[in-house]
Write a structure and sequence with these properties.
ribonucleoprotein, mainly alpha, 6 helices, 198 residues, three-stranded antiparallel β-sheet, 2 domains, 50s Ribosomal Protein L17, Chain: A
Length: 198
């Protein structure tokens, strides 16, 4: 398929396909935008959970992932990795946290190091997409509710029924045991009654 055929296909779409552009304008230009991203990555490493605008969180997430993956791959003796950590982390004590805390936490991880959720909107007011960006394994409570105890899940229903069956069996065993004991005790009591009457 040559280029002309591809353009024919694209022109037949009902809606325009545009690249996803982030609206990250800054009065200080690209340098100010980069400084905001550096502050965001620094805050993420420091606090491990931050709330901010969705677009900035989405872009800062990629830089945080890159920083942590390079730290895991090359270690603290690699000059380029140390320069990268020195650039992105504005507070220099966080470089130690990166290599001593985050690298051991994520070195055997096979999923992303960060997690991003959409945050609820402020009402009333102007709606801006907000997000919560966090590092996995942080010490804070989970943002997602725990649905593992939901009684309507099939495995919980099956476990409840198995518990009920087990209790029924145990109660039936206890009832037969009590019934057998009560039938045995009158027979044993009759001879004793005879001995008393003699």
């Amino acid at each position: 398929m040559n280029q002309a055929e591809v353009t024919k296909l694209m022109s037949q779409l009902r809606f325009a396909v545009r690249p996803n552009k982030r609206n990250l304008k800054n009065p200080d230009g690209p340098e100010g935008r980069l400084m905001k991203l550096r502050k965001t990555v620094t805050a993420l490493v420091k606090h491990e959970r931050i709330e901010l605008f969705y677009q900035r969180a989405d872009e800062a997430r990629g830089y945080a992932e890159l920083l942590i993956s390079d730290a895991i791959r090359h270690g603290d003796r690699h000059k380029a990795t140390m320069e990268l950590a020195d650039f992105w982390l504005l507070e220099k004590q966080l470089v130690h946290k990166l290599f001593k805390v985050l690298v051991p936490r994520f070195e055997n991880s096979n999923v992303s190091f960060t997690r991003m959720y959409k945050a609820p909107r402020d009402y009333p007011g102007i709606y801006y997409d907000k997000a919560v960006l966090e590092l996995r394994g942080n010490p804070y409570p989970s943002l997602l509710p725990d649905f593992s105890q939901n009684r309507n899940y099939i495995h919980n229903i099956l476990l409840d029924e198995a518990r009920k069956d087990y209790r029924r069996e145990k109660l039936a065993e206890m009832a037969t045991k009590l019934a057998s004991e009560t039938t045995e005790t009158p027979k044993a009591a009759e001879p004793k009654a005879e001995t008393k009457s003699d």
